[in-house]
Amino acid sequence: MQMDLTLYKTLLEVAKWQNFTKASEKLGYAQSSVTSQIQKLEIEYGVEIFERIDKKMRPTPAGDILLRYAAKILKLYEESKINVAGQTTGSFMIGTHETTLFSYMLPPFLGAFKKCFPNITITIHELLENDTSRALKAGECDLGFIVDKELSDPDLIFKTIQEEEFVIVAAPDHPLAAKSAIVPEDLNGAEILMSISGGRCRKLFETMLRKHNVQYTLTYEINNYETIKKCAMHGLGLCLLPRTTVSTETQNGQLAILPLNYPNFRLNVQLCYHAKRQLSVPMKNFIGLMCETTPHERLSLEQSNTIQPL
Q1: Does the domain spanning 86-310 belong to CATH 3.30.1490.110?
Q2: HTH lysR-type domain: which residues (predicted)?
Q3: 199-247 tens-digit pLDDT
C-alpha cells in the first residue's frame, strides 16, 4: 500500500512540474527512480501516462483520468489518518478569491481554532474569480469562502457567516466627506480607484455608477485592497471596499466613509463545501466556529486577538 501511495505522489509531482528532473529534485529521488515509478504505473494500468510535447511531459488522456483518481486516493488516505488517529493531526485547504477580505476576518477564528486543534494545519489557497465552486467540485480544496448574493448549487452546501457591507471611502479632506449625505450623482467627475480583478467589489461599484449615469475618471486599477487604501489616503481617488477592511483607518481618521446610503452595497460572506464531502472532526469544528459564533462572541474573539492581514 505504501508503495502504491508513493507512486501516486510521484505521478502528481511529475504532472505538476511537467518535468522528470524537477520532480525528482522536489521529491528527493534520483531521476531514474522517478522514471521507474512512472513506468510501474504504466505497466499496472496498461496505458501511457505522459507524452513529451514541446519539451514538457504532459499527461495523455488516460493520464489525466489517472491523475484525478490519484489526487482523490491521496486525499482519502489523509482523511483516514486523521480519523483513525483521533483527528488531532492533519490538514485541510480553504480556497477563496477574496483573500484580502478574509485576511481581516479569519485571524480571530484561526486563533480560537488553533487552541482546540494545535496540530491541524490550514492552508489558504487563492483562487481565480468565480473559481471556488469549481475547485470544491474538483476536490482541489476542502472548504471555500465566497462573497456574493445568496447562492444555490445542488452539489454544494452554502452557509452564510455574516452580511458584509461595502462602503465608499476617501481621504478625510475629500470634498464629499464634508457632506452630511450624498447621492450617486454626486460622484460625477470623481477620481475613482478600482480593483483590477473584476471581482464582486468592482462589479458592485460599476453597476451603481452605470445605473445612475455617473461620469468619472478611473485613476488606478489595483489588485490589492491594502494598496487601494493607501492610494485613497494620499488623495488619489475614492474607492469602494468592504467595511471590515477599512474599520481601523476610518476609526483613526486616515480614511472617511462617504455618507452614501445605497442598499445594494451588501453581500453575504458564505462558507461552502461539497455536499458529498466527508468532513473530518476538525473541519466540522471549524465550520461550527465560523457559522455559529454570535456577533457578541465574534467581537470577543476580535478583541482577544491582534487582527492584522495574513
Answers
A1: no
A2: 7-63
A3: 777 888 899 999 999 999 999 998 888 999 999 999 999 999 999 899 9
